[in-house]
Predict the 3D structure of the following.
Amino acid sequence: MAHIEPGQLADPYSELDLRRYVAVFEAAAQLARDPFFGLRLGEEVEIEQFGPLGIVILAAGTLAKAMCAWARYSSTWQSGTITEVVSKGDVWECVYQISDDTVRPRRQDTEFTLALVCRLFRGTLSRQWAPLGIQFEHAAPGGLETSAARRLYQRTFRCPVEFGCTSNRILVDHNDLDVPTVGAYHGLAPHVEHLLQTLERPGQLPERLSERVTRAIRSRLGYQPVTAPGVASALGLSARTLQRRLQTEGTSLRTLVRECRRSRAEAMLADPRRQVTTVAHSLGYAGTAVLSRAFKAWTGGAPRTFRGKASGRC
């Protein structure tokens, strides 16, 4: 059971390490006996309670700027996560992903975050706004077949919701991007942004390129090809520079892809509800045979054997 000291509860800027933070959500859902605890909590938080980041989102001016502000400054609220805005033609995506695949279960945190972000965006436009769709990496929760559970997701997001996807995404219609926001904090935006910039963990060591590449790989696995030109372009580098700089850090793109695939495969296979075929496709493999060969090279055994051992540990 997760534990928080009383003094931490009294300080809104007190920090928890990510693993314990996520565990708090799961523990709260168990104590409340509410499997939809995170989803409901995300519905109830007011924008002003979200602190400086909420004010910057409200003051952004357009939905596109609000989305970019969320992706840019969300690390001041929660570290150890991938938050980015990706353009896919007529659809823009807000991606949210915990970087460490071993931090599980994490469904409550994920549903809380996407419900809260949708609430923030809706508050900047109008109460009628809705995204095109919501995608969750976790499997469909038990009880989803009941009408009450379906109504809860529909009330929260007002759009189709998918489960078992490669990552967590809010899909936004490009026609909504330039709609003016209705926030009342436009004059405060520069001052609050300056505050957020000071909260971006000053004093940390400069981020290694391999860490940035790993994030880029995780956001693409099973969704688009992971190639040196594609990853390099996303990071503003040439493919040759990417490979050379990774070599100086003692690694390579191929090694990082393999590590990402292995950690995600092990995390997904630990969930007995996920089919091995789904896991293979989520890693960008053509089928289970390819996954099985890769998994045997990693661990010496088959995916189903690993799943049996993981279930025995639980």
